[in-house]
Amino acid sequence: MKSGCGRLALAVVCLLTARAAWAAAPAGSYALDVGGDNEIWFPSGDDTHCDDDGMGDTICLLTSASTDATGAVSGTGELQLNFPGLLDANMPGTFAGRLSGSPRNPVAKIAASMSGPGTLLIDPNDPNSSIPVAMTGTAKLTCRNPLPHGPEFQCRATLKLCLEALGRRSCHGARVSTVLGAAGGPWTSALELLTDPKGLVSGSASAMLAGGASESFGVTGKYNAKTDLSSLRLRPPNPKLSRDSLSLSRLRVDGVGGVQGAVISFKVAGQKGRALIPPPP
After folding, report:
1. Contact 55, 118 (CB under 8 A)
2. How many domains does the chain have?
3. 82 Cβ partners below 8 Å, 6+ apart?
4. Measured CA angle at 152 (ends 148, 154), to 5 deg
């Protein structure tokens, strides 16, 4: 007598395989892929932004940014000032800050400092009247990349520039706009789980961003054998270094490492969100 899988021996194999795919206590490796409106974007890569006042005066900012999985933003840059007949300066510097907001509207708040030499022309009609000057600058930037996400974070900045020459120091402030390179996309929460006879779930997990930056978490939780659902909490090993966290509710897994559904609430790379992980088709 034939079964739906063919011969009797194959029918037994099919039955065991099907049973393994039924809902089960978490035990093994699992991966939850999060995308759509919950993609995580962050400052990354090289970018250049120049402003020209239409009269030949140009301010350019060259940046190289990176972001780790906790949402810490850092980078280097150079502010270039070219005011023909008045001032030329190149000011390298560094910047650092953090991400916040949500996947729909990530926000980076960044502080920058820079310094470098310049040349000031005392008499515009005399090219030999130039003198060396010392330039310093600080800036506070607020950068956003709302949906639909683009290849750049758009930044508003408060800039303070100081010039020191001939024993005198002069400072001026201005509001400017600039950009930072952006990257991002779907991200993955990977879990290694074990359930004890009392239904207590433990293990380790990670959140990996597009591009490979990853953060580790410890896992605690509870499995309900009556409903085959689990609730888990994911916390970083050192809360002083990261304020990220995740929680999984209504997590259902099968016996072959598959996720049959979950609700994930998260703060990853400083961005808060909530996503439904549907069962596979």
Report:
1. no
2. 2
3. 57, 58, 59, 60, 88
4. 90
pLDDT tens sequence across 161-172: 999 988 899 999
Tell me what the pLDDT averaged over the chain comes to.
91
Same domain, 130 and 249: no
Please work out, in degrees rounded to the nearest 5, the angle formed at the alpha carbon of residue 188 by the alpha carbons of 187 and 194: 165
Domain that holds residue 117: 41-184
* Residue 57 token pair: 């005066």
The total of other beta-carbon atoms located within 10 Å of residue 246's CB is 23
Is the same domain home to 195 and 170? no
pTM for this entry:
0.87
Write out pLDDT tens, residues 118-136: 999 888 778 788 899 999 9
Expressed in percent and rounded to 5, the helix, strand and coil fractions of the chain are 5, 65, 25
Task: Report the distance separating Cα 192 and Cα 205, nearest Å.
Answer: 6
Q: Is residue 158 part of a domain?
A: yes
Q: Is the dihedral of CA 12, 13, 14, 15 positive or negative?
A: positive
Give yes or no for a contact between 115 and 135, defined as CB atoms under 8 angstroms apart. Answer: yes
**What HEC string does 160-197 produce?**
EEEEEECCEEEEEEEEEEEEEEEEEECEEEEEEEEECC
Angstrom distance (rounded) from CA 135 to CA 96? 20
- Does a structural domain hold residue 3? no
